């Protein structure tokens, strides 16, 4: 009988104790082989799940409006440099964590260029995509340009389609808020979007290079009241630029 370790024949002439020892050793061997197979299968399953998750994240990113250069950004994995960043990080994480709760407030991240507003705003979206949650990024101008293009005869979408698309996404990041609008109609569409999201109780993250005061003046009292009413948060990016 081939019951010795390695599937070798057992030498019966060496007595019962030897035979039993050989069989025990072989059984232990078989058990550990089985364990290894199970372990391999488990590892393979985990690898496939990770691959699927990566593909899903890549697909969500592709259609999220997040610019290519910020595709690798993450808010959760951000390593704050210095005390000022370290103080703000948990507040941003807390905002991101509460964003899917009913009636969650909007937020405003403001500060000088290069401080990482776009990086972390896009990072917040990517962190969501990794757990299968949706979100969208646009600049204020990107949105008004899309509205403008919707008036073209060959446009596949109407201005109402555009408005509804931007209004219905669970989290919308609007970057570069504060640039002057080129036309009154653009301004109206911008405020209609904010209003529509407010009515739908969907949070918006505003990113801006303006100062606190300038931002308030730019969006006006109607928007400020809405932000305040929802408990909206102003988070200053009051540290050095990361651009060298
Ligand atoms: N927390 C961070 N970790 C890694 N890189 C960062 C971080 N914040 C900013 N950067 C990088 O610094 C540069 C400026 O950041 P950016 O987000 O564009 O600034 P802002 O939008 O405030 O003008 C970008 O290249 C960005 O990727
Ligand atoms: Mg920016």
What small molecules are bound in this structure? adenosine-5'-diphosphate, magnesium ion
- Poorly predicted regions: none
Total number of β-strand segments? 5
User: CATH superfamily membership of the largest domain, which one?
Assistant: P-loop containing nucleotide triphosphate hydrolases
Which second-level CATH architecture of the largest domain applies? 3-Layer(aba) Sandwich
Q: Report mean pLDDT, rounded to a whole number.
A: 92
Q: In the residues, how many domains can be counted?
A: 2
The general outline is elongated
Strand share of the residues?
Answer: 5-15%
As a percent range, the share of helical residues equals 40-55%
Top CATH class of the largest domain: Alpha Beta
Distance between the termini: 75 Å
Our Rg estimate from Cα atoms comes to 29 Å
Q: What structural class is derived from the secondary structure elements?
A: alpha/beta
Main sheet record: 5 strands, parallel
Q: Can you offer a commentary on this structure?
A:
This protein is an alpha/beta fold and 244 residues long. The chain has 2 domains: 57 residues, no CATH class; 174 residues, Rossmann fold. The protein is 54% helix and 9% strand. It has 7 helices and 5 strands; from the N terminus they run ααβαβααβαβαβ. The chain has a 5-stranded parallel sheet with strand order 2-3-4-1-5, with helices on both faces. Strand 3, helix 6 and strand 4 form a beta-alpha-beta unit. Helix 1 packs across helix 3. The chain is elongated, with a radius of gyration of 29 Å. The mean pLDDT is 92. Magnesium ion binds next to helix 3.
């Amino acid at each position: 009988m081939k019951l010795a370790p390695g599937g070798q024949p057992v030498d019966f002439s060496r007595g019962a104790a030897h035979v039993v020892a050989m069989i025990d050793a072989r059984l232990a061997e078989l058990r550990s082989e089985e364990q290894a197979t199970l372990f391999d299968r488990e590892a393979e399953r985990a690898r496939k799940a990770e691959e699927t998750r990566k593909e899903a994240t890549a697909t969500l990113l592709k259609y999220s409006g997040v610019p290519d250069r910020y595709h690798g950004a993450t808010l959760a994995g951000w390593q704050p440099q210095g005390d000022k960043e370290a103080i703000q990080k948990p507040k941003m994480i807390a905002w991101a964590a509460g964003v899917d709760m009913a009636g969650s407030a909007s937020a405003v991240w403001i500060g000088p260029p290069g401080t990482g507003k776009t990086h972390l705003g896009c990072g917040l979206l990517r962190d969501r995509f990794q757990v299968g949650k949706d979100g969208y990024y646009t600049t204020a101008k990107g949105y008004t340009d899309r509205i403008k293009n919707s008036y073209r005869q060959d446009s596949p979408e109407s201005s109402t389609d555009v408005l509804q698309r931007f209004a219905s996404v669970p989290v919308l990041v609007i970057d570069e808020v504060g640039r002057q609008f080129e036309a009154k109609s653009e301004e109206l569409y911008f405020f209609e979007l904010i209003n529509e999201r407010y009515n739908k109780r969907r949070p918006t993250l505003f990113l801006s290079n303006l100062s606190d005061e300038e931002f308030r003046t730019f969006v006006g009292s109607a928007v400020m009241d809405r932000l305040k009413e929802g408990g909206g948060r102003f988070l200053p990016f009051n540290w050095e630029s990361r651009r060298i």
